[in-house]
Design brief:
- The chain is mainly β and 460 residues long.
- It folds into two domains: 105 residues, no CATH class; 331 residues, Alpha-Beta Horseshoe (Leucine-rich repeat, LRR (right-handed beta-alpha superhelix)), CATH 3.80.10.
- The protein contains eight helices and 23 strands.
- The strands form four sheets. The protein has a 16-stranded parallel beta sheet with strand order 3-5-6-7-8-9-12-13-14-16-18-19-20-21-22-23. It has a three-stranded parallel beta sheet with strand order 1-2-4, with no helix packed on it. A two-stranded antiparallel ribbon has the order 10-11.
- A hairpin with a 2-residue loop joins strand 10 and strand 11.
Length: 460
């Protein structure tokens, strides 16, 4: 459209109902260069367009797209549009919508959206987002999701069947793209997100889950999320929750509808320095605990216990992995009776005050039957893993470093079990030679059933 090249000061362009405008699809990507001040663009009912890109039109505030029923790909990245293009609900052929770096799009009325494309790529920051299907939305306010109800039909569409939503107050969110979750191919996966020491973890850093919610940032988010309803609809469909650097979080109960997180399978909380207990009182009786498989807690300066209060029978019945590190005030994991029949790995590191794993409570007899790996690092006051009669039949690997007061291992019951079928294989124990030589044994048969490896003095 060579006639437009001279109109460099043009702010409004109406091309609606131009049925014979055949070159609009090719011309649109260059609007940002030839019409740098264009604010309003009307393309309603123009020539059938299949691909429309207005990427980089940094002055574009308003666009009308009604009647473009043949549209398959729409790219509005880099524009300053203030309203979501609700017309796309009528575009049954739309496969992809790109809304990268649309920082002026601050709120959405989700009730007006009946249909979303299969691929929705959307954030409020710069950086690569990946090339797979699914929704990535990064916003600075939880209010953005205020009208997204748990019952919305969008959750059953292809787009929101996989999502990563990030709420962060930071203006510069580039590290969110680079360090946390990415859409790549058909999977979400974690990439170098946990602390550097997690590279030693027994846990697989990759996640098979598809619906992630991250709430990141400082106290400025407190009034927007604590006790609010803004993320209710999202929490009910979240299977992976990350809380990072949130000063307002004292427990998960600050999230108003924590009781409705029935799909939650993974929970990671890090650098929330006002967190004292993860679950408190009756919040420990919520149904979401029946699905929780992985719990990761790190760098929590005030954490005293994982679960404080009464635990309903049946809670934590899916929990497979617990990883806790850098929690200097942690004194116990659970304050009451608990059954951990599915727990497979237990990792605790750099928790200076921890004395006993289950202080104040007890482990039920059916617990810990699947626990095969225990890792204990730099726990100077730890005196016992468990003082009881639980049977660690599946224990295969035990790593201990920096636990000088731990003088007894929970191996008595499984070694003395008269049932030959239940006789365990040798337990591999890795630790410091000085610590190993100071262990107390109830019988030589127990010690013979272990295979000791000395750890390198500088290896964590």
């Amino acid at each position: 459209m060579p006639c437009l090249k001279q109109l460099i000061m043009l702010e409004q362009l109406d091309l609606s109902n131009c049925a014979n405008l055949h070159d609009i699809q090719e011309a649109a990507p260059s609007f940002g260069h030839i019409l740098p001040k264009l604010r309003i663009l009307d393309l309603a009912n123009t020539t059938p367009i299949v691909h429309l890109s207005l990427r980089g039109n940094s002055s574009l505030e308003t666009i009308s797209l009604g009647g473009l029923t043949n549209l398959e790909v729409l790219d509005l990245s880099g524009t300053i549009i203030k309203e979501f293009p609700y017309e796309i609900s009528d575009f049954t052929r739309l496969r992809r919508l790109d809304l990268l770096d649309t920082k002026s799009l601050l709120s959405v009325d989700w009730e007006r959206i009946r249909l979303l494309p299969q691929e929705l790529i959307w954030n409020h920051c710069e950086g690569k987002n990946g090339d797979g299907s699914g929704a990535f939305i990064c916003v600075t306010s939880a209010e953005f999701f205020g009208s997204l109800k748990a019952s919305s039909p969008l959750w059953n569409q292809n787009c929101f069947s996989r999502f990563r939503f990030c709420i962060s107050p930071y203006e510069e969110q580039r590290t969110v793209d680079e360090d946390i979750l990415h859409l790549r191919g058909e999977q979400f996966f974690y990439n170098n997100y946990y602390t550097q020491s997690r590279r030693h973890s027994f846990a697989n850093p990759k996640s098979h889950l598809d619906r992630h919610l991250e709430i990141r940032g400082d106290g400025r988010l407190g009034d927007k999320i604590s006790g609010s309803k803004f993320v209710d609809g999202v929490l009910g469909h979240t299977d992976s929750l990350t809380l990072c650097n949130n000063m307002f979080v004292t427990s998960l109960s600050v999230l108003e509808n924590v009781r409705d997180m029935a799909e939650l399978k993974e929970c990671e909380i890090t650098k929330c320095n006002n967190l004292e207990n993860v679950f408190v009182g009756k919040t420990a009786m919520i149904s979401s605990l029946r699905c929780l498989e992985k719990l990761c807690l790190s760098h929590l300066a005030r954490l005293r216990t994982v679960c404080e209060g009464t635990i309903e029978r049946g809670s934590f019945t899916s929990l497979k992995s617990i990883c806790i590190e850098f929690c200097p005030r942690l004194v116990k994991l659970f304050s009451s009776d608990v059954c951990l029949g599915t727990l497979e790995t237990l990792e605790i590191r750099f928790c200076a005050r921890l004395e006993e794993m289950f202080q104040g409570g007890r482990i039920e007899g059916s617990s810990l039957q699947r626990l095969h790996t225990i890792c204990l690092w730099e726990l100077p006051h730890l005196t016992s893993i468990y003082n009881g009669h639980c049977q660690l039949r599946a224990l295969k690997k035990l790593k201990v470093k920096g636990c000088p007061k731990l003088r007894k291992l929970p191996l008595r019951v499984i070694v003395d079990d008269p049932d030959p079928i239940a006789a365990p294989t040798k337990v591999e124990v890795e630790g410091e030679l000085k610590w190993w030589n100071q262990l107390n044994w109830e019988g030589e048969g127990i010690k013979c059933n272990t295979q000791f490896h000395e750890s390198h003095p500088y290896t964590i």
